[in-house]
Design goal:
single chain; two-stranded antiparallel sheet; about 45% helix
Length: about 400
Amino acid sequence: MATLKVARVGRVEKTDDPLRPFRFVDADGTEAAAVSEFLHHMLADDASPTSLRSCAYELLAWVRFLRAVDVPWHLASRVEARDFALWLKTTKKPPRRRRPGLGEPGHGEGRARRELCRSDQAARSRGDPLVLRVPPRDPRPTADQPVPAGRGCRRGESECTSQPDAAVPAALAPGHLSAKEPKPTPRIIPEQEFNDLFAGLKYNRDRALIAFYISIGARASELLGVPQGLVAPGDQTIGVVRKGNQVLQHLPASADAFVWLRLYQQELRGMVPKHPSEPLWWTLRRPFRPLEYDAARMVFTRANQLLGANWTLHDLRHSTAKRMVRDPNLTLADVQWVMGHAHITTTEIYIAPTPDEVVAHVLAHHERQRAEQVKPPAPPAPGYRPEVLAALFGTSAAGGENR
């Protein structure tokens, strides 16, 4: 497995069909019917399009692996599932197309543990070809059908669930060949580095965009999808549609964000459509088009390059949550509502201090301990003679040496 060469064949394509937002295409250009059927089940189970995209890409790694070991999709067994897990542990993760610098997480020789866990889950409990290809059977366990399906993943762990009428082999049931997912550590942009990044922005649109990101903590896609009609400067709120439950939520933003937004809108006045249903964010070059994620990411990348940093738009969301958690006047429930977390346990990860904060706190503790040791003792109360106290306690009330 360590020397296996896996060709990057096949692809996941985005479509305009709302009932099939993504389709899985094999190396020969044909659509994989089993994967498409599974994605239909996910969509019917109220999974978001981004979850469908994530699962499709995770299955793509499994398909490429099967092609490399010359095992057809319908003949894959638990042996291939085991080898797939071993391959993920030993193969190097493809390098990202971005320069290293400030904010760049450390990468080991193997694949990231989180990616390994996601791919392993996708191949086994969410979208394994063994799950997809088994025809509907009697849900009762039998000798050749030891484990009935329908277990899937718990809603709190993933939006992906197995088909209710497909059978999961016992060897691929949850818990087999499972990868341990590391505890997430949010990347927080320090205040001074954020100020330097913001100073590197050239246009009012970019300043408005980043000011909203850092003040409302919305996901990149949520803020980019805001129409003009959901901006309320009088209430100092902006409406975003949440990624998970698709619920409209009006989030309070900083006054500075609305000032930059007004300057940006004034610059494009008469050049882009103005209507409550039209997009809020546009490109700055003709022909004007709605601003998409890749273009917004490049805006932040250019500012990063000035500092040799490598922060991402999602790091702004983490930084916002951390700022709010530090405010003693905001409760954890307040932060959960603003961030749109389904569970407060997700918000609690921002309570933990960063390593830099711990180092600073402990160094301050050592300094306080040192200051206490050199601090002279308090003078005795009126009426007590220092020489009597020295005789009784072996020390001088005036700060003399032990005798």
